[in-house]
Every structure is written in structure tokens, then in C-alpha cells.
Predict the 3D structure of the following.
Amino acid sequence: MPDIVTITINPAVDIFVNVEKVEPTTKMRCSAPKRDPGGGGINVARVVSRLGGNVTAVYPVGGSIGKLLQKLLDREGIDSLVTPSHVETRENFTAYETESGDQFRFVLPGSTLHRAEWEACLGTMAKLKDKPRFIVASGSIPPGVPDDFFARAAREAKRLGAQSVIDTSGDALKAVLDERIDIVKPNLSELSEFMGATLDSDKARLAACRDLIAAGHVKMVALTLGADGALLVTSDHAYKAAPLKIDVVSAVGAGDSFLGGLVWALSAGQTPKDAFRVAVASGSAAVMSPGTELCSEADVRRLTTRVEIAELAAT
């Protein structure tokens, strides 16, 4: 039985191309496309696997794109528990403009799932014979799936005795925080939206994380801040990681890589502070990789020693 199970209700195949210049109307000649498995929990599983963790990914598949998605994950040696969908699995498209160095990302919503289809994903979790240590529910919610889907996944994790790890936004985030989960990983805009405040200082961000913990919504908040680094807050400690000085190549998958590194390190028995260091290194390594590559193990190992962490506050 894997230590970590991820659930992705809106998976995708991510397509990446290079193009000299993005212009309206004009035919734009692109490089040969590169295709990678995508979707929040699937990306987390890919990172965990690269770092040597034991992980299984749960997700629905439909049509030829769904078959390709599972084949791509098989190539990476990731165990899949798939459920059938009557609709084609979605694709996302990213174009890198070589002239400017800008990246253009086109993210599709996913097709509508029937109730029996999204319930099948939860049922697959319920039928796990052995208990994983962590269940990670991550990504967006496609049409037809209720906003409390991740809340239901968190309840299932609790029933199995696993720690629940959630990365989502909007109404889905609001619903899941009522379940008293173990770890939540919002980015700054997602937490600001939830709190109804701009959170433009470390003091305000720390206070927001503390409020979530004090209210019993969550035990640990991992808040990614983009170019400002990241925060990790528990009931006892608050850590701030300074951003690493690196060459940014792609913004795709940084948050998923961060979460994958964090969960992998925690499952390996590392302390929250040390796991936070691995998470920051993983997120930073992802932006160094082109397209939808995510992070590499070699880059994560190398960058981990460079991560600087300061304790902001203690109980």
C-alpha cells in the first residue's frame, strides 16, 4: 500500500510548444508538441515519485485522451487507480514565446461529470485495503462535481486514518475547511480571497494562517508567496522561507511541486521545518524546468541546501 494517495477529479494532458511570436489571426508555426500528465493531484504524485516516494494516483479517465493520460503516468512508473468517465479527458495548452520569453497558458474547464462518475473516485478511496498515511486532494473542480467534493475526500481520509492534504480554491476551499483538515496549501491570492483581505504583509499573512488554525479548520498552513517565498504555519511555529535566486523558465507546476516535496518529506519522517525546506526547493526547481516538466530530483537535492528559513513567531 502506498504511503501517499492523490486524488484528481479534473485531470488533464498538458501540451507544451515553443512559438517565435504570439500574434492574432496569423498562422503561428510551433515546435513539435510535448505532452505530460497534468492536474493538481497527478502532478503531486509525479513529484513524490521522482523523489522516491510510494504513491498511487486516483483519477477519472475518458476517451482517447484519458487513455493517453494513463499511458503517460505508466511511463513514469506511477500506479494508477482509474475510474471511467463518459466524456473525453481535457487537455491544457501552454505556448512559450521565444522572442519575448513570455509564457501563454490556456487552461480548459473539463467536461461535465455525472454523479456516478465523481462518486466512483470517492468509492475507490473507500475501498483501499490498507491505510495510506496521506491523502492529497488537489486541483480544480470540473462542471457537474459539487463544491464539497474535496470535503468529502477529507472525510474519507479521516475514516481511513490518513492525514488530509488539500490544495484548491474558491468555494471548494471554503467547503473543505469546515472538515478540520490536516494540511492546506493555498497561494496568496487564494488565501486573500478566502479571508476577504489583501494580506499585503507577513504580519497579515501570518495572522490569517493563525486564524485558520485557531478556528480548528486546519493543523498546518503552507502558504506559497511566489517571488516572496513561502510561509509554513502550525499551532507552535511559523517559518518564512526566502525566495531562491534562480533563473525562471516556466511557471507551470510550481505549486504542485511545492506540495509534492512537502508531503514526500513528511511521509519520510522529516520535521515540518525540514519538509518545508524540501517543499521550497521543489517549487523552485519546477520553475527552472521548461514547459510542464515539473521539478527534477537532482535540482531538488541541490537547491534544498540553499533554502534559508527564519522563524517568525512561536507560541
Remarks:
- The mean pLDDT is 93.
- The two ends are 37 Å apart (CA to CA).
- Residues 4-17+33-314 form a domain with the UDP-N-acetylmuramoyl-L-alanine:D-glutamate ligase fold (CATH 3.40.1190.20).
- DSSP finds ten helices and 14 strands in the chain.
